[in-house]
Every structure is written in C-alpha cells, then in structure tokens.
Amino acid sequence: MRQNKVRFVNKGEEIVGVLHIPNERNPPGIIMVHGFTVDKDESGVFVKAAKEFCRNGFIVLRFDFRGCGESEGEFENMMIEDKLSDLRASIKFILKQKMNKKKLGILGASFGGLISILGYNERIKMLVLWNPISKTKEFLDRYLRKKIGVDWIDEMKSKKSVFFYKQKKIFKIREKFWEEIQTLDALSAAEKIKCPTLILHGDRDTTVDIKNSRELFRKINGIKSLRIIKGAEHGFHDQESSKEAVELSLRWFIKYLK
Asked: Among 77, 79, 172, 195, which has the highest number of CB atoms less than 10 A from its own CB?
C-alpha cells in the first residue's frame, strides 16, 4: 500500500490530488469529493478514510477542486459547471490507473455531495454522501448569514461580491455564483440516480438541515440507505463521529463495489 501525489490538467489548469494505491491487483476505485472552502484533506477526515479504504483493497483518489487547496485557479472564479468538469476530469484520471474500470464509487461530503449528485453518470456504480447539500439556495444563505450577517444579500447586490474569513483565509463569492446556485435543482437530479446510495447525516448538523437529507433520500431510486450519526455536527470532524462515518462508508463500498 502506498500513496502518491498526482497532477492532471483540466481546462488548462492543474489539479493536484493524492492517489492511495492498494497492494492487490485490479482493485475497485473510489473518488473523494471535498466540500465548500476546504480541500482534499477535509480537515484530516478524508485522509483517515482514504487510508482505511485503501487498506481494504480500494484505489482511492482525493483531489482539490480548482481554486482550492494546491490546485490552480481562483476560488472566486469557480462556478458549478467548473466543479462538475473537475469531477469528470478526476473520473477520467482514475480510470487510467490499474483498476477495475467497471467498479467506481464516489464519496462526496457536503458541497462535494451536491457535485456528486449533479455529476452522477453511468460510470459511477455507487455513491456515499456525507451530509450532502441538496437545497443550494438555503445552504448558501444560511452559511453567509453566519459568516457575514443577515444583510449579506444587500452587500452582494451593491458590490457584486462578498468576502468572508475562514481559518485565517479570505474567500470571495461573486454575484454570478449566487445567481447560479438559485437555478440548481439537486432533488430532481437525484431522481436519476440508480446506483446503490448511502447518505450519512449528523443529528447535530447546523450547516445542512437533516430534513434535507430525508427528502433527498426519498427522491433517489434503487438501493439506498439513510443513516443518522448521533451527536455528529457537520463534517464528522470529531474522532467518534468520523470513525463511525468511515466504518459505515467502508461497509457500503465493500458490499456494493468489491
């Protein structure tokens, strides 16, 4: 078992990732899709999960969306289609590796869950969604109210963009992104999902309302499961909830992808 930093290009910009390679031949693959304003590590939770998946015989790719982490591009310029394009590029990249091309799964966290839903296609054989965003307008409004204040929309309209701080970093969101967010319909997109899908959500999540995952669950077709992790906030960053999330995800991957 080993891990390599990898690079591939999408739309003329470099995407940086980490590829976790198991010892077994022709393994099934997993792509991990990170959330909003974070990166391929997801504060360490994705690192832990990727290593555990790899130990159990999966080849795993964690990557930074353009404008995030080590990848090229500017966060403020990214639109939903750019995220979807990066996911498609990551799928092409992992399928070029020595793996079972018919066994590819996706794990999307929060905003990465949204992109995984919107980006679903026939090459994806199973999904795991951690506290996924399905009501995008509600999410961004709630998120920016916490970061900026209740008048953030007025500021957006007057200045065409807003700034906020997170962990000593400055993030800028343009008005065109807010306008795009309002046109998305993740619930309708979820109706097209036919592969086995596991949704995990913390019952103390204050970022994404748990009722959204219950509604999302009802929209998805085929084999599906919704598991509530007690005491967990958004992101499963504490040791106990991250352990449970990784274990439940691994069982799902083993059952439906190996």
From this structure: 195
Sequence-distant (6+) residues with CB within 8 A of 118 are: 80, 84, 184, 186, 189
User: Tens digits of per-residue pLDDT, 100-157?
Assistant: 999 999 999 999 999 999 999 999 999 999 999 999 999 999 999 999 999 999 999 9
Instruction: Please give the angle made by the CA atoms of 127, 65 and 180, to the nearest 5 degrees.
Output: 85
Map out the domains of the chain with their CATH numbers. 2-136+185-257 (3.40.50.1820)
Q: What would the 3-class secondary structure string for 138-166 be?
A: HHHHHHHHHHCCCCHHHHHHHHCEEEEEE
Please report, as a single letter, which amino acid is at residue 141.
Answer: D
- Torsion over CA: 31, 2, 57, 44 (sign): negative
**CB within 8 Å of 47: residues ≥ 6 apart:** 41, 62
90-100 exposure pattern, b = at least 16 Cβ within 10 A, e = fewer:
bbebbeeeebb
CB 129 within 8 A of CB 199: yes
Give the Cα separation of 189 and 248 in Å (integer). 24
For residue 17, the surrounding DSSP H or E stretch is: strand 13-21
